[in-house]
Every structure is written in structure tokens, then in C-alpha cells.
Specification:
This protein is mostly beta strands and 823 residues long. It is built from nine helices and 52 strands.
Length: 823
């Protein structure tokens, strides 16, 4: 059951709800957005896509030096192109990742210094050199120097060696790059003893870092960080050092990543203390530490960070029911008086909560507010998540004491929630449409030839997240099956979402049997491993009111099951994107005179203003996009601009995942951008690999997993190796070229917890236009086909579309599709 916000009435009597208190009169300073960083969050230029990075307003990332041997990709200068292009802040260069082994080869400072020289010369020559930070040592409390030893005499010996090397490397960096910003000491864990000595030494020797860094990777960090932060600031004061910028440049455990309800606990902690923080790199590079599916698709964790990026104004004090306590309800909040908005992000606990917002300023909000509540659920590391569902839109009177209470019922521990308060105005917001839904844990189902495993607990914090901390694996026998008993309220069509893991190394299947009927094959794409959760959607299961048995039995390979969700199907998917919560540029104004429609008022655009909406599409194809505006607006998408009349639907081509739609107008009040549809391919052009003219060794390869039984293989690695499609466009204009591809390039560096997948590239040439270099992320297996959308211009009639790579292998190509941006 989804969380609900009752319009009125007393709280549930079964148990007193937890109380989370927000004080809008207790400012903590400007929203900093420091906690959205990532270690190896980027792997290549284009992985992840600009469209999923730009909305997050990422303040810092950590990457290896160019050519570093630690991993096959993630080079700082290479990924800086897309990072800065997407509005990113600064890049930490993990200098010791120049080495190949983990822990790093300890070859002495004389071996390291020439490497330092090379790194600094390359970075300082970059046009954006002022946006890089050098981290010369990584986890010196454990690596090379063993600064965490208990024996004091041994500690002092190791410490003095480290301090000598710190000074040497610091001065070496500054000799090459006098304006360099240097960060450290970068411990694996917080050590008062070391930091006290480090501050005294670096001050005395004039080698104080510009950024203070350490890691928070313990299962107790959610409890302990506040004490660490307070202690460090005390050490600074005692040392007579002005407060340094802090970057917790590795944080969170595997069980936290991708889980909105876990992440909101970390983010609130760091934002409250105004520190920067980068999520850890436990698995594969290029997915923002487990928050981007493929290259462009949001999961539930991504949406939490999108909400976080939407906070504006100042953060304000939030009092949690149990501050600094692991796995409890926590939150953060902001107040923007210029936009007349207050926002609260919360999560981390099951059950009921009352969110009490105190000191709601009447001069800003008036006598009533509209409270809009939405949920970002956990969808797995590799599970797609549509735009968060609005659970409630309710007008609430501000109490005489200046408070507003928002009751939340039935919270899910793994979900995060957003409350937006805006002035009430006249009218009534549209009621939220929340279809019936229910979840069923695999471990609670009837099992045959399977085993229940426990994952991702506080005691096993670096285990992978699982719903309810358990899943069902070892479904590898001929008779293995999981039988779910479900109960639905009425006859109808239901969507089935299956949280799974696929350890087979290729596409795997199970048989879905409903009430003993003929089995239906469910195909599961590959995942990184059997605990790296993904989500498979099965649309339109017909059920009559009452109890049913849904059985998932072994197919052609082994699949692990975590949970299933059943949701009543109410037609094509739809979402309303509120204009007053969109990204803006220029100086638009906010009009809350009416709370009709989405309830959050209107954004008034004039010449020079722009609003950018982040629009989700479950697959590549056409969708109906309707602007709710007072006058005509222009929508820009994929390099095409189209004029849209108020309330008039447009048929626009969206790529799978996130699409940034920019809206401008000479003068229009915009309430929302409404998007519906399931990704129609009617009117698109489709060309199988077999239709291409192949040259230079590129050839068709038979495969049962390719759409027409074959794909283009051995493409590239030579200037002569090409695949040329002849595309017949019904009219000239801007199209999206969707390439269906696969590849499984890897380089195993022997790391216990990193999967070193690699990307491939291809040059795409349309007619006589200049080629576009496009990056294709690893698809986990050579038999799983993903898509990448590339905007191109086509002339009416025949067009040559050529894929090539003169210097390395291109991905295998299954087929291509083209859809005109404005259908």
C-alpha cells in the first residue's frame, strides 16, 4: 500500500506516528548540494548521458588520472568534457590510481614522484585546470603508511614517514601548478590522533591542504559522522586553522546505494553540516555509484538526487525522531522565499509519520498552503523508475501557531518522500490518482528447490540491497519455482513488476503461470551479478477479483527473485511535471493565485526565461506531450524546436530514460507539462542489420537473441570496416537515430569489488555531415541489446547512415530505428 496523506481526520490509532519537525525560521544557510558526488561515477565521455547528469547539479566527482592503470576507464580529463558540459562542479584526481594494483604497489616515493609530475603537468595544462583538485594519497591510514596502528611508537614512525612524503608531494605539485588545490589526508576512516598531528604539521610546514578529506564507509557512519565532524572542527580551532572545505570523498555502503530511503539519511547529514561528499565505487564505473540504469535511465535513487538538486533557497533545521541513529526516519528541508516554496525530503523508516512544519511565514504563504506529496521507491540498481508518483495534493490551513502538519501513513523504509508546500490560492488542486498496488516478498512465497538468502543488513553493510533484506536464490533445479499467493480487489488488468537478479551471463527466462494456465515466458536481461537487482515489467496480466497464484518457475537459466509488485493498470502511463518545480534560467516569476491542476501554481515565462522539464520515457518512441499554459510556448527537444498551443497535444519522440524538454515563451503562465503514452513506434523507420551494406570485415552473425536472427559483428578496428544503411526519410528534418547494440568488453584488474567493464565507440555519419563519435556502454553480456539515441538531420528521400570505428572495435549492431522528433 502506498503512503497516503489524509485530507482530514485523526492519525491512525494503532500506534503514535513518528514526528519529524521542520522549522522554517531556523535557517542553516544556502542550499549547497554537496552530497551528490560520486567516485568513478563517470566512465567515459557520454557514460552516463548528459541528460541524466545535468539535472543533478553534481558538485564534485572523483576520478583517476589520465592513463591511470587502476581501472580501464574513468580518466579525469576524458570524463571532464561531459561533466563540465553538463554543469558539473569540480573533479578530484585520485593520483595514486595511476598504479595498477590494489592496494597500490609500494615502490617508494622516488617511484611516485615522476608519476606526480606527469599528472600535474597534464591537469595544469587543461583549460579547466582550476576546476580540478589533487588528492595525492588515498587511505594512507591503511595503504603504504599504516597510520591506524595501535602501537604509539610504530604510529609515530609511520606518521613521520607519511608527513615527510606529504610535504614532498605537496611542494612538488605546487612547483608545477602554483595555484593547485590539494586535498588530504584522505583517510579510510576518521582518526582524531592522526588529524590532530596532521593539522599541526601542515600548518608548521606551510603545506595545509585546501580541502580536508576522509571517508565514511562504516556501517556506523550514519550514527558517528556528526561526532566526527564536530571533533574535526574542534581540532581546526585548536590548531588555529580557518575552517577548511570538507569533502567526504567516499561514503555509503553497497546496501545504501540505489536505495532512496537509505540515501536520504546520508544526504541530510552531509547537507546539514555543509560538507561535500562523493558516494563510493563498489561496483562498475559510469552509473553515478548505482543510480543510472544503462546510460540514460533513472532508478529510484536518481530521482532522490533529482529532488535534492531541486532544493533552492536556504536549508532549515529538521529535527528527526532519533537523530544520528542508523536506519531511522531522517530528513532535510529548504525554504525559498523568492519562489515561495518549502520542500522536505525524508525517508528511512517504515510506518507512519507526522511531518510538522513550524513557523510557516504568512507573508510568504498566506493562510493556506498546498501540500504535494510524492514517493521515490526503490527499483533496484538496474531497475528503471518512472517519474515519482504524486500520492496526494491537499490544501491545508495554516494553524494559528503558524504550523502545518502533513500526516504520512504507510511509509516504506526503502522509499524517500518529498513534500512541497506552496501558497494555497483559490481553487482546488486535482486529486492525486493512485492506483491500487500490493507487494509480495519472494521469501514469503511457497518455494520449491530454492533457498532464502539474507542480503544488505547493518551487520553485512557491503552486501547488496534487497527488499526486506532477503531474496530467493539457487533456483537452478528443473523443478525450481516460487509460488506467490496474491489478492486483487477487482476484475481487471494488472502490471507485474519483478525485482530480480540474473547471474547467467546472458538473457535468462522463467515461466509465469497464473492459476495453472499455460505458461508465459518472461525474459530477464543480464545483470552485473545475482544480487545486483533489476526490475522486469510484465504489462497487462488479467486477473479477476480475489485470490490467485502466480508461479515463476525455472526457464533456461538461473534467476534470483526478490519481490513482485502488482499494480492496477489504468491505461497508458501518464505524468504531470510541475512548472514551478522545473529548472529555470532567466528571471521567471511564480504565480500561486490558483492551485488548480497540479496544485503548485504557475511559472510565468517572459522573453529570456526558460524552464527545463525532466521527462521520463519507459522506452524509445512517440509520446503525447501537452503543455498546460496560458499562451503559446516553444518546446526544444533533441535539437528541434516546436511551437505548442495551450492545451494542444503534440506527438514527440522521446528516448528511453530521461529527456530534457526546454520551454520558452514571450509571455505565458505555465502550470505543467503533461506526458502520456507507452512509446509508440508507429511511423518510425526500422532497418535490420541484414539490410546494411557491410565492408572491411564487418559481417552478419547469427544469433537467437537478435531481433531478426542476426547482428552486425566485427565492425570497426579498421578504416575500411563499415556498415552502411540506406534510410528513406518521408520528409526532411530532425530525427532521433536509435541504435540497438550489444558488447561485453571487460578488463579484469583483479579487484575484489570492482567490475571493470569497458565501453566501445562508433562514428556515425549521415550523408556528407561530419561524423559523430558515440559511446556505447557495456551491456553486461554480448546477447543483451540496449539502445542509444542520437539526434540527426535527414534529407527527404534516401540518406546514407554509416557506422564505423577506424581504430577499435565498434559494438555489435542489431538494428537501427529513426523517428522524427515531431511526429
Amino acid at each position: 500500500m502506498a503512503a497516503t496523506l489524509p485530507a482530514a481526520g485523526p492519525a491512525a490509532a494503532a500506534a503514535d506516528p513518528q514526528r519529524l519537525t521542520v522549522d522554517l525560521d531556523a535557517s542553516e544557510g544556502p542550499v549547497m548540494l554537496g552530497a551528490n558526488g560520486s567516485l568513478y561515477g563517470l566512465s567515459d565521455d557520454g557514460v552516463p548521458s548528459d541528460a541524466v547528469m545535468e539535472p543533478l547539479k553534481i558538485t564534485s566527482i572523483s576520478q583517476k588520472p589520465e592513463g591511470g592503470a587502476q581501472h580501464p576507464n574513468g580518466d579525469a580529463l576524458t570524463v571532464s568534457k561531459s561533466f563540465f558540459r553538463s554543469g558539473g562542479g569540480e573533479i578530484n584526481v585520485m593520483m595514486q590510481d595511476i598504479y595498477a594494483k590494489w592496494p597500490y604497489e609500494d615502490l617508494g616515493i622516488d617511484d611516485y614522484l615522476p608519476k606526480v609530475d606527469k599528472i600535474v603537468k597534464e591537469v595544469s595544462a587543461d583549460p579547466n585546470s582550476d576546476r580540478f583538485v589533487y588528492i595525492p594519497f588515498n587511505e594512507p591510514d591503511q595503504i603504504w603508511y599504516e597510520l591506524d596502528v595501535q602501537d604509539q611508537a610504530q604510529y609515530e614512525k609511520n606518521r613521520d614517514r607519511f608527513f615527510k612524503d606529504w610535504k614532498t608531494v605537496y611542494q612538488r605539485i605546487r612547483a608545477i601548478d602554483p595555484d593547485a588545490r590539494i586535498a588530504g589526508p584522505n583517510e579510510a576512516a576518521y582518526h582524531t590522533r592522526l588529524l590532530k598531528d596532521f593539522l599541526a604539521f601542515t600548518k608548521r610546514e606551510n603545506v595545509v591542504p585546501q580541502v580536508m578529506t576522509w571517508h565514511e564507509l562504516g556501517s556506523g557512519s550514519l550514527r558517528d559522522f556528526q561526532a566526527h565532524y564536530d571533533d574535526y572542527r574542534k581540532l581546526e580551532r585548536e590548531a588555529g586553522i580557518a575552517p577548511l572545505k570538507i569533502n567526504i570523498d567516499e561514503y555509503a555502503n553497497r546496501r545504501d546505494l540505489s536505495v532512496p530511503g537509505q540515501l536520504v539519511q546520508w544526504v541530510s547529514m552531509f547537507e546539514r553540516n555543509k560538507v561535500y561528499a562523493n558516494m563510493a565505487y563498489w561496483d562498475a564505473a559510469g552509473n553515478l555509484s548505482g543510480h543510472v540504469v544503462r546510460s540514460n535511465i533513472p532508478n529510484g535513487g536518481w530521482w532522490l538526487f533529482r529532488w535534492y538538486a531541486g532544493l533552492t533557497g536556504n536549508t532549515v533545521k529538521v529535527t528527526a525522531p532519533q537523530p544520528n541513529t542508523i536506519d531511522t526516519l531522517q530528513g532535510l528541508a529548504s525554504l525559498d522565499t523568492s519562489r515561495r516554496q518549502a520542500q522536505v525530503l525524508l525517508g528511512g523508516s517504515d510506518g507512519d509519520s507526522d511531518v510538522v512544519v513550524k513557523n510557516v511565514p504568512r507573508s510568504v504563504f498566506g493562510r493556506t498552503v498546498t501540500a504535494t506529496v510524492a514517493e521515490a521507491a526503490w527499483s533496484g540498481y538496474e531497475g528503471q523508475h518512472a517519474a515519482p508518483r504524486v500520492l496526494a495534493r491537499t490544501k491545508v490551513k495554516v494553524a494559528d501557531d503558524g504550523s502545518v502538519t502533513v500526516p504520512l501513513r504507510g511509509l516504506h523504509k526503502m522509499s524517500a518522500y518529498r513534500i512541497v508546500l506552496t501558497p494555497g490560492g483559490s481553487g482546488t488542486p486535482a486529486a492525486a490518482s493512485v492506483p491500487w498496488s500490493a507487494s509480495y516478498e519472494a521469501e514469503d512465497a511457497a518455494l520449491t528447490d530454492g533457498k532464502v538468502y539474507t542480503q544488505g543488513t547493518v551487520q553485512n553493510a557491503n552486501g547488496y540491497a534487497a527488499s526486506g533484506t532477503k531474496d530467493v536464490g539457487s533456483l537452478n533445479q528443473a523443478g525450481s519455482k516460487v509460488a506467490f499467493t496474491v489478492n486483487v480487489p477487482k476484475d481487471g488488468s494488472y502490471d507485474l513488476a519483478i525485482l530480480y537478479g540474473n547471474q547467467s551471463g546472458g538473457p535468462a527466462t522463467q515461466k509465469l503461470i497464473v492459476d495453472g494456465a499455460d505458461p508465459v515466458t518472461v525474459t530477464y536481461p543480464s545483470t552485473e551479478n545475482w544480487t545486483y537487482r533489476a526490475k522486469k515489467d510484465v504489462v497487462g496480466v488479467r486477473l479477476k477479483a480475489g485470490t490467485h497464484q502466480l508461479v515463476l518457475s525455472k526457464g533456461d537459466a538461473e534467476v534470483t527473485l526478490d519481490r513482485i509488485d502488482l499494480t492496477a493498470r489504468t491505461g497508458a502511463a501518464s505524468a504531470s511535471y510541475e512548472a514551478t518545480l522545473a529548472d529555470i534560467s532567466g528571471e521567471p516569476s511564480y504565480d500561486y493565485s490558483s492551485s488548480a491542476g497540479v496544485g503548485t501554481g504557475a511559472l510565468v515565462l517572459r522573453s529570456g526565461d526558460k524552464a527545463v522539464f525532466d521527462v521520463y520515457a519507459p522506452r524509445d518512441g512517440y509520446y503525447t506531450v501537452t503543455p498546460r499554459t496560458s499562451a503559446a510556448v516553444k518546446l526544444a527537444l533533441h535539437g528541434e524546436t516546436v511551437t505548442a498551443a495551450p492545451g494542444r497535444p503534440l506527438r514527440l519522440y522521446l528516448v528511453a530514460g530521461n529527456n530534457r524538454v526546454a520551454t520558452t515563451s514571450g509571455h505565458a503562465a505555465v502550470r505543467s507539462l503533461d506526458v502520456s503514452g507507452d512509446g509508440s513506434t508507429s511511423g518510425t523507420l526500422s532497418y535490420e542489420g541484414a539490410s546494411a551494406a557491410l565492408a572491411g570485415g564487418a559481417s552478419l552473425v547469427d544469433s537467437p537473441h537478435a531481433s531478426a536472427g542476426s547482428y552486425i559483428g566485427r565492425l570497426g578496428n579498421s578504416p575500411s570496416s563499415t556498415a552502411e544503411f540506406t534510410v528513406n526519410a518521408p520528409r526532411s528534418g530532425r530525427y532521433v537515430l536509435v541504435v540497438h547494440y550489444a558488447h561485453n568488453d571487460r578488463r579484469d584488474n583483479g579487484h575484489a569489488y570492482n567490475t571493470d567493464i569497458m565501453s566501445r565507440t562508433a562514428d556515425i555519419t549521415v550523408g556528407s555531415a561530419a561524423p559523430q563519435k558515440v559511446t556505447f556502454k557495456n551491456t553486461w553480456s554480448q546477447d543483451d541489446y540496449w539502445t542509444v539515441g542520437v539526434p540527426v538531420d535527414l534529407a527527404k528521400g534516401a540518406n546514407k547512415v554509416t557506422l564505423s570505428n577506424a581504430t577499435a572495435w565498434a559494438p555489435d549492431i542489431d538494428r537501427i530505428e529513426l523517428g522524427r522528433v515531431v511526429g
